[in-house]
Structure formats: C-alpha cells, structure tokens
TrEMBL record:
Helicase ATP-binding domain ranges (all copies): 56-231
Protein family: Belongs to the DEAD box helicase family.
Protein name: RNA helicase
UniProt organism field: Vanilla planifolia (Vanilla)
Motif (Q motif): 25-53
Shown residues in whole-protein numbering: 207 to 443 of 765
Residue ranges constituting the DEAD-box RNA helicase Q domain according to the UniProt record: 25-53
Length: 237
C-alpha cells in the first residue's frame, strides 16, 4: 500500500504501511485537550506542517513510525504532542519509577532544542521534562532524574552513564523516540542506542526519525519497530 500526496510542487509525502490512519488538516482534528490547544496557539502554530498532518494521527493511534525528512519540517511537535497525550492517558503517574517518554538525539544542541520544545507542551499539563547530555554536571542531572521526570531528552552516551549510575530506570518507559538516527550512527552511538532500545519494554511505541536511511539504520528500524508506517518527505522530479 503506497499513498503519495503532493503538497506543493516538487515536495511529496509518501506514506507506506498497512492500515494507515487518515491525515488531518488542522490541529483541532487531533482531539487535543484545551491545555494543549492553547500551548500550540501560544507557539504561533496556526496549522500543522505537511509531516505533522500525516504523522500526528498515526502517532496518536499508537503506531510505530519511521519518519524520513530533512530538518525544518516540524518533526519535533509531531512526536512531542502525541507523547504528552500518551503520558496523560496513563492511569497513575509514579514519577519515581522513571520517565514514560524517552527521546534520544545525537548532540547536546539538538537535545537542548527538543527539551525546550517539549517543555512548552508538557509543562502546561504539569509534566516534568529532564535534559541529559554532556557538558552539564552529571551530579546535577543525577539529582534531577532522582527527583522524577515524565519525559527525558538525552544524548545516548550520557544516558547510558546515568542508567549505570541508577539515576533512572526504563521500567515505565513506553514511548521511545530516536531522533536523527543517521547522525547518531555517524557519531558512533550504535552500541549505546542498541543498549537503550534493549532496556525499554518491547510493548513500547517507537518512532525513528532520520534524514537518510543507510543500511544500519534500516536494520535498527526492522529490529526495533513493530509494523511501522513509513512517512517520507522529499523532493521529487
Ligand atoms: P525538524 O525536527 O523537522 O528539523 P523542528 O521540529 O525543529 O523541525 O521545527 C522547525 C521549526 O518549525 C521550528 O522553529 C518550529 O518551532 C517550527 N514549527 C514546527 N511546527 C510548526 C507549525 N505547525 N507551524 C509553524 N511553525 C512550526
Ligand atoms: Mg529535529
């Protein structure tokens, strides 16, 4: 099954997979809480970007996603908004058991950007976001994680260090995002990523984003995702 939607000249979105949920046209089609709708408006986001139109209903339905798109397409909100909904749907929040949402990104700069975007949508719901990356005090991060968090944004190396220090557990994690997977592999994080994926319960929801899909990343997607829907944004013609 292959759907190709052309949004504007030379920019096409291909969606492939079984039982693909229909794209949305507006944030109001997503069934978001008023709190979340207000946070979106406050960000100045009037309508979803093309990848958000396709990906939001898919991620909200609980499906795994492989998202292939260059930077600047609005991928962060496409996973943060459904992550917040996923967490708010959990029956009881026992923060000491570790985060529910786990996001891995290749560099501290990217992790920090995601952290800022995550806070905008998570904080209005009272959710706590922690950022974990090199260049910040490990001791401070240890204390922050110990205090409890619902979402953790991390670079793979520092996350592994803090898992070894038992600053957090993955017991409660059910929503895993691997952002810019190709760059994480380029930076040599494959072993750390495999270790992290191996620690998150297999019935999790997993999203993998990458600008390119080299063989190694395809293999990770095949091994780590379940019946994924592939959303590709790309130039054509
Ligand atoms: P990507 O991860 O695909 O590189 P980002 O999630 O970082 O893209 O988004 C790129 C920029 O677009 C950011 O400045 C973000 O705030 C903005 N943005 C995201 N979604 C929307 C939207 N629906 N409307 C307007 N701007 C948006
Ligand atoms: Mg991004």
């Amino acid at each position: 099954e292959l759907d190709v939607v052309e949004y504007r000249k030379n920019l096409a979105i291909r969606v492939s997979g079984v039982d693909v949920p229909k794209p949305i046209k507006a944030f109001a089609d997503c069934g978001f809480s008023n709190v979340l709708m207000n946070a979106i408006a406050k960000q100045g986001y009037e309508k979803p970007t093309p990848i958000q139109c396709q990906a939001l209903p898919i991620v909200l339905s609980g499906r795994d996603v492989i998202g292939i798109a260059k930077t600047g397409s609005g991928k962060t909100a496409a996973f943060i908004l459904p992550m917040v909904v996923h967490i708010m749907d959990q029956p009881e929040l026992k923060k000491e058991e570790g985060p529910i949402g786990m996001i891995c990104a290749p560099t501290r700069e990217l992790a920090h950007q995601i952290y800022l975007e995550a806070k905008k949508f998570a904080k209005p719901h009272g959710l706590r976001v922690a950022a974990v990356y090199g260049g910040m005090s490990k001791h401070e991060q240890f204390k922050e994680l110990k205090a409890g968090s619902d979402i953790v944004v991390a670079t793979p190396g520092r996350l592994i260090d803090l898992l070894k220090m038992k600053a957090l557990t993955m017991l409660r994690a059910t929503f895993l995002v691997l952002d810019e997977a190709d760059r994480m592999f380029d930076l040599g994080f494959e072993p750390q990523i495999r270790a992290i994926v191996g620690q998150v319960r297999p019935d999790r929801q997993t999203l993998l984003f990458s600008a390119t899909m080299p063989r190694k990343v395809e293999r990770l997607a095949r091994e780590g995702l379940t019946d994924p829907i592939r959303v590709t944004v790309g130039e054509v013609g």
